[in-house]
């Protein structure tokens, strides 16, 4: 579906297609840089495993963001088992009824989706305040709604734990689950978008590291659900999870306050930043074997006027 409705945005892929089109239309030996520099599959696999692992253990931003999103993701899967346990014990719900209650997470995610345009609007407004790269939005602008979202995530866990009891109507803990859903969505979007903006060239590696932690927590945290709620009781089990969520809520706050300094100290972030015109480079391998580098604009990229590619810059 995405392949059909979305346009390609990766710079090297776009340039490769432009170069192929130029070769077909003009017969000239025009190549995108990505076509001339083809690393082996073995080296690609090595980088694919080593770089995310290195970033996970050496980049504090990746480490703490991974913990933040992993815990939220683990809670999502923990609800699949805990809701059955808590609602059947407190309200006598059967399998079908508890399944319907779990839809509250989906409702929360839909609410988060409706809030997301506000986040995008606030993010784009930060472009005027960016002194490092004028005109480009600041990566920390991606975290504005994730901070209240993280607090909602925490509040929902407390609400779910302490209100899931027979004397309180079942809709109240279900609302708590819905609030948790809003928080999970906000955290997920904040982490994914921030890592993409901050690490740019290495965004895939940063996201891979976060995905490793996220899927690990999602796989194993639900195993603790029954014992946790059985031994501590619903209220204190929800509180324990809530306190962990509250502690992790400090992660986006620190980045929002100190993000610029943290990015300056990060070797990966400094190296990963795209320079102006990086996405518009091409190589023309002419008869003399020389390489030519295009400048930004229709006259200096593969796909612009063919004559422009003959000019050495």
Outline:
The protein is mainly α and 313 residues long. It has 13 helices and two strands; from the N terminus they run H-H-E-H-H-H-H-H-H-H-H-H-H-H-E. The chain has a two-stranded antiparallel sheet with strand order 1-2.
Largest sheet: 2 strands, antiparallel
- Low-pLDDT residue intervals, each spanning 5 or more residues: 277-313
In DSSP terms (H or I, runs of 4 or more residues), the helix count works out at 13
Strand order of the largest sheet: 1-2
Give me the CATH fold name of the largest domain.
Answer: Growth Hormone, Chain: A
Number of domains: 2
What is the percentage of strand-forming residues?
A: under 5%
Task: Walk me through what this model shows.
The protein is mainly α and 313 residues long. The protein folds into two domains: 51-272, Growth Hormone, Chain: A (Up-down Bundle); 280-313, no CATH class. Helix content is 69%, strand content 1%. It is built from 13 helices and two strands. It has helices at 2-5, 11-26, 33-36, 41-58, 60-91, 95-101, 103-125, 146-163, 171-199, 203-220, 225-248, 250-265, 267-272, and strands spanning 30-31, 283-284. It has a two-stranded antiparallel sheet with strand order 1-2. The radius of gyration is 24 Å and the shape is elongated. The two termini are 41 Å apart. 38% of the residues are buried.
